Amino acid sequence: MPTVKMGSDGRQTQVLKAENLAKHYATPHLLVKAVNGVDLTVLRGEFIAIMGPSGCGKTTLLSMLGGLVRPTSGRVLLDDIDLTSAGERDMIEIRRYRLGFVFQAYYLLEHMTALENVLFPLQFSTMNPAEQVERAEMLLEMVGLADRMGHFPRQLSGGEKQRVAVARSLANEPAVLLADEPTGNLDAESTESILGIMHDLNKRLSQTIVSVTHDMSVLEYATRALHLEAGEIVRIEDDLR
Ligand SMILES: Nc1ncnc2c1ncn2[C@@H]1O[C@H](COP(=O)(O)OP(=O)(O)OP(=O)(O)O)[C@@H](O)[C@H]1O
Ligand SMILES: [Mg+2]
User: Which CATH fold would you assign to the domain 12-98+174-241?
Assistant: First the structure.
């Protein structure tokens, strides 16, 4: 087990919680129940894999956990903050300071170097500029990109771009790292590298991670796997390691 923060009674503490979470989309011809009544408690230090067939609601669920999509019903609690009732300004702060996001398509800023991409979220921190650069460099070194800091995204491979995205997501020490198919666009070697980094982050730094993935090898690293079908959790694999 990774070292995790314990509550005063010695139990792992809860960081993220979904209660009866649902997202329904009313389209002209049908009601799409993208997520339909999900209950989930994420403990600090967990690495949760969300799996399931295309269209089963994985991205929708992750987006609601990160406050990117408002649920139709139910609640999401990050520590004790109810994301479902937070105002837009509070949500911006929460996404900026409390959560880290990694997506399949990287979403790096094309006109900025790797270093500037990682510095971008740090501009909102309380660190002075020198400390910001120091932290951004440390994060890029951590993902093995010490020699690529001055490269623009177009000068990086897919795997390297995703490593920059992971470094950026960690800038403000997020309580939870949310990843949506982070290896979806990568070849086998880069997939292994990204999963290795995520495993390391979870194991060494107790970084809490919730990641949507199709990659079965993630089961070697995850603490739990949730299997989703038609918007519902149909199976949970526990004690994976
Ligand atoms: N804005 C929307 N309006 C209507 N239906 C939507 C909307 N967004 C998603 N859906 C539907 O909700 C369902 C779940 O979508 P979601 O993107 O969460 O699936 P997913 O599990 O992430 O799939 P994939 O593995 O292909 O990424 C799908 O059937 C999709 O068509
Ligand atoms: Mg998806």
Answer: Rossmann fold (3.40.50)
